[in-house]
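Lab notebook, page 48
Experiment: co-folding of the full assembly
Goal: obtain a model of how the components sit together before planning crosslinking
Operator: M.T.
Materials (sequences as entered):
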Amino acid sequence: MIEPILLHTPVLEWYSENARDLPWRADDATPWGVLVSEIMLQQTPVVRVLPIWHEWMQRWPTPKALAVEPPGEAVRHWGRLGYPRRALRLHACAKAIADEHGGEVPSDHATLLALPGIGEYTAAAVASFAFGGRHAVLDTNVRRVFARAVRGDEYPPTATSAAERRLAEALLPALGAPRWGVAVMELGALVCTARSPKCADCPISNLCTWRLTGKPAHDGPARKGQTYAGTDRQCRGRLLAVLRAAHGPVPKVALDAVWDDHVQRERALDGLITDGLAEHLPDGTYQLPT
DNA sequence: TATACGTGGTC
DNA sequence: TGACCAAGTAT
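Observation: model returned without errors.
Model output:
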């Protein structure tokens, strides 16, 4: 096991020099701003989140501001970020914060975890980055850095394991856990990337087990591919794009126009309604949830 | 635990 | 050029 201090110093120094200037990391960032960023960043690159985050925070600077809107407005302004159920959950999250927490984002990990759309990672991230809590933030970047540097594997396991949690906890510094967490994430995002890691720029390449052992290729089953073309997901995306653009009820023919396969189209539409992303009105039209 | 869930950029 | 990947969550 590598001594934690041997990782801390170089990673933190590297972060001081290389951290991106992101608005949710600014001194004046609010817990709500951090929470919004974390939801938007789930499975979504920073560059696509940036403009939506700015618009969102200007429109809804507080949880209460969002909570009084219909959920469809959240879905509309989510734009093309992807996974629009996140917009719905963020709206539900705002309502829960407004109704049950006096409009203030909770600082406690367990309380955050109970909110819609907030799972293990996001609860730790908000508790740590917004409130200074000492939590292990295990996102895909951190998991990859630890897998390589400590375990010597090219990639972490598919699902977060107990061993990974133990390791992350063990590496957590007594002081400055939030900065350590964001520093490791940044290292994974900018240097220790999935496909072409920039080991020449890495502050811990000298003790990285994976590099020291010759960067063995990932063994085991191929990682699950994300099919998309022709799937229900693509169909749902097409349908929802029509509803977002409409600003009002949409006749069925407008939806029929964007996807040929009748059976799949109906299934996808039903799915959107089941998920609460669309409403079917008595007159046969469709719209974003009110 | 495996699967569904958007979108767009990269090599 | 199509597979892979991006600060995951819910079921």
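Interpretation: The mean pLDDT of chain A is 96.
Next step: discuss with group before ordering constructs.
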